[in-house]
Design a protein that fits this description.
Helices cover 60% and strands 10% of the residues. It contains nine helices and five strands. The protein has 257 residues and is α/β, with parallel strands linked by helices. The chain has a five-stranded parallel β-sheet, sandwiched between helices. The chain has two domains: 89 residues, no CATH class; 150 residues, Rossmann fold (3-Layer(aba) Sandwich), CATH 3.40.50.620. Pfam families: DUF218 (PF02698). Keywords: Membrane, Transmembrane, Transmembrane helix.
């Protein structure tokens, strides 16, 4: 009975993870936050399918069992670190009450599948439009380079969306070279110097992304910087958090934060 329950649990979890990833990939989304759950889901399905065979193999080869035990310990430690990271992300507020008069808004890109605004990016642009009304004299930098296999730059798509939202074209500055958060903020800072834009700055990005974006900005030398967070749609939330987990590790290894 325990064996049947375990196999069914593995099968259910595996199918849920795999189908969720396939659904998001069908929306032209592809990142580690989608690939890792797909791999884990397929692994769970395979384990449920070949469960008895795997048990026999472990009994016949003690070294395999030992290796699996150490792998299990490593997986458990990884899950603990992931839960700790998720707990921090979960407590980031969906908006920031900024008392300072913001001079420049920097909007970070978030993918433009088929040269269209993605759900994450739509939330960021909506938050930008609200901020633009609060600070009508502020200038806006939209930051994002050309996506792989696409002819458009993220900043171009973002700028067009804001202009359609009745934000004056002269307020919008497009940074079209960046391919990462570090480059978003590095190249935007250079654009500020070139265009004579000033701080205080408010960075507009998704809620899960604000902590890393703020740390990178401070590392790059922004002196007076705040963040405005946009909510993440529920069906994308945990995949986005997982992607941010790996991105934070990458930023730490690259000494960006």
């Amino acid at each position: 009975m325990k064996t049947i329950f375990l196999r069914l649990a593995l099968l259910f979890v595996g199918l849920f993870l795999a189908l969720d990833s396939i659904y998001l990939m069908s929306m032209h989304l592809l990142n580690l936050g989608i690939i890792v759950p797909l791999f884990l889901g397929l692994l769970c399905v395979f384990t449920a399918w070949r469960f008895n065979r795997l048990v026999m193999l472990m009994r016949q080869r003690p070294n395999v069992l030992k290796w699996l035990k150490w792998s299990g310990v490593g997986l458990l430690l990884w899950i603990v670190s992931l839960c700790f990271f998720f707990s921090r992300i979960a407590h980031v507020p969906h908006s920031t009450d900024i008392k300072t008069n913001i001079h420049t808004l920097i909007v970070l890109g978030s993918g433009t599948p088929n040269c269209q605004v993605s759900p994450l990016l739509a939330a960021r642009l909506e938050a930008t439009a609200e901020a633009a009304q609060i600070w009508p004299e502020s200038q806006i930098i939209v930051s994002g380079g050309q996506d792989t296999r696409l002819y458009c730059a993220e900043a171009q798509v973002m700028g067009d969306a804001l202009r359609r939202n009745n934000i004056a074209a002269e307020r919008i500055h497009q940074e079209e070279r960046s391919t990462s958060t570090d480059e978003n903020l590095r190249f935007s800072r250079q654009l500020m110097l070139d265009e004579g834009l000033s701080e205080p700055v408010a960075i507009v990005t998704s809620d899960f992304h604000t902590l890393r974006a703020l740390r990178i900005a401070q590392k790059l030398g922004y002196q007076n910087v705040q963040v405005i967070s946009a909510p993440t749609p529920l069906y994308l939330r945990y995949n986005a958090w997982l992607r941010e987990y790996f991105a934070s590790i990458s930023s730490w290894l690259l000494n960006e934060i």
